[in-house]
Design goal:
With 380 residues, the chain is α/β, with parallel strands linked by helices. The protein contains eight helices and 19 strands. Helix 2 runs parallel beside helix 8. The termini are far apart.
Length: 380
């Protein structure tokens, strides 16, 4: 048997070598995908579908690899010159090197591949719902400090890339960012903006409803409106219906959809968010909508039988005991809002007895690989 150092040497030689590849698609994280000469999949940040590249391998595994671009031998027709001076060093964006149309196509593939490969579903999304605004939409950002510079993390690193202006942020956040960068703060800073600027308490408005912003709130107000309209359409409630919203946060989606119901309840584990949700219900005049602080999987339904259930879980999706709780409640309809198509597809498969009736995708985060989905599940 050959010694281990022999194989380590071979791997080192592979890593040091360069190869020429053609990029054929994108990963869920927005990296370009190609095949090495030995058949392994290689992931290349900053690559565009159709590129012919000279690459250098930097991480090797048995079935895959990661690589850096050495030279673009033939650029893809989908490639554009990045409009940000720190891209792709900064990890905040994934698609500033391709056209927006190509980005949307990549997101379509991501959603549909997850539904078919993970969920075993035939449902497909034909187009991405979008606002048309690809910059200046973020109402929240976290700035990191190393004591010398203020900025965002480098891709797949905690190394800080100094930032004085970000194309994704709203104008008032960029103004604050410029002032803070000059001061060189010693700690991380969270900036958030609402319809009343950066003045607390922050408020946001959606279709005439005013929300106190505390805890989680969608970072793209205009895209959130598109998403909430789709959720409201799917719920299709009447005054004889009961709605329950799990993971309700500050109650924005509960109120937006629940105003059509006879009764609605929001469930949220964070007590501060529940307090804000109750304030939001009062200031919008909805006495038929209530909120409780509880875990999504083990709250006391007290014989409450929802006609429709909304779930908007974290990226990791539903826990098994939450799936069990949903099946116990057995609503006629489930409106599932998700920021990860993979966990959405997995959870749809786990919700036995329910069929995916319709699926939509909203571009909540332009120029990044992230995509928001909304699905309608029907019982039986």
């Amino acid at each position: 048997m050959l010694p281990r150092r022999f194989f380590d040497r071979i791997k080192h030689m592979e890593k040091e070598s360069t190869q020429t590849v053609t990029v054929t698609g994108y990963s869920s994280g927005g990296e370009g995908i190609a095949r090495l000469c030995d058949g392994r999949v290689v992931f290349i940040r900053g690559a565009a579908r159709g590129d012919i590249l000279e690459i250098k391998l930097n991480k090797l595994q048995s079935r895959s690899a990661q690589a850096d671009i050495i030279r673009i031998l033939t650029p893809s027709p989908n490639r554009v010159e990045p409009d940000c001076p720190v891209y792709p060093l900064c990890g905040g964006c994934d698609f500033r090197h391709v056209t927006y149309e190509e980005e949307l196509q990549a997101k379509l593939w991501r959603v549909n591949d997850a539904m078919e490969r993970i969920g075993g579903l035939s449902a497909r999304v034909d187009s991405i719902i979008r606002t048309g605004q690809i910059g200046g939409y973020r109402n929240k950002t976290v700035l990191h400090s190393d004591g010398k510079s203020l900025g965002f993390y480098k891709a797949k690193s905690h190394e800080i890339v100094p930032i004085k202006k970000c194309a994704l942020l709203k104008d008032d956040l960029n103004a604050a960012l410029g002032n803070l960068s000059a001061q060189k703060p010693k700690h991380d800073i969270t900036l958030r903006s609402g319809r009343n600027g950066l003045r607390p308490p922050l408020e946001e408005e959606l279709d005439g409803l005013v929300f106190r912003v505390a805890g989680f709130f969608q970072i793209n107000r205009d895209a959130a409106l598109l998403l909430y309209n789709k959720a409201r359409e799917y719920a299709d409630l009447s005054k004889s219906d009961i709605l329950v919203d799990l993971y309700c946060g500050v109650g924005s989606l509960t109120l937006y959809v629940g105003r059509d119901a006879g009764y609605a309840m929001g469930i949220e584990q964070n007590p501060d968010s529940v307090k804000a949700a109750r304030v939001n219900a009062r200031q919008n005049g909805y006495t038929h909508i209530e909120f409780i602080s509880a875990d999504a999987a083990c709250w006391d339904a007290n014989n409450l039988k929802p006609d429709c259930l909304i779930v908007d879980p974290p990226r990791k999706g539903l826990l098994k005991n939450t799936v069990a709780k949903i099946l116990e409640l057995s609503p006629k309809k489930i409106v599932y809002v998700s920021c990860d198509p993979a966990t959405l597809a997995r959870d749809i498969k786990a919700l036995s007895g329910y069929t995916l009736a319709d699926l939509s995708a909203v571009d909540m985060f332009p120029r990044t690989a992230n995509i928001e989905c909304c699905g309608l599940l029907r019982r039986g």
